[in-house]
Design a protein that fits this description.
single chain; mainly alpha; 434 Repressor (Amino-terminal Domain)
Length: 122
């Protein structure tokens, strides 16, 4: 096992190729240990060079709705009437504290995700 820091795109591609080769190595082998370490190095490189922004509150709600196979009508109890749900999901109205509390429970989302600021459509 000869592991070096990932300092460039070339190092990154080489690490990914090696990781793909040894990914399914049996636990407890040298290759398995190497895969664990390479995975950590690749993850750190990707966090630094390819950051993924967290979705805004409305996108987070829509993503969770899709995951849970929910429709807008399924959020009426958490947000209000059908028109209120539509206004929220179409960014015409901001979430209230009460809505955030209800959605946190209904969709199992962190309140921190839902309290982030987002732009309304005018």
């Amino acid at each position: 096992m000869n592991i070096e820091p990932i300092k460039s795109e070339s190092d990154y591609r080489t690490a990914l190729t090696r990781l793909e080769e040894i990914f399914d190595s049996p636990v407890g082998t040298v290759e398995s240990d190497e895969a664990d370490i390479l995975g950590l190095l690749v993850d750190e490189f990707e966090k630094k060079h390819y950051p993924i922004e967290a979705p805004d509150p409305i996108e987070a709600i829509k993503i969770r709705m899709e995951e849970m196979h929910l429709r807008q009508v399924d959020l009426v109890d958490a947000i209000g009437g059908k028109s209120r749900v539509s206004e929220i999901l179409n960014r015409r109205r901001k979430l209230t504290v009460e809505m955030i509390r209800n959605l946190t429970t209904r969709l199992n989302l962190s309140p921190g995700v839902l309290i982030a600021d987002y732009q309304l459509v005018r």
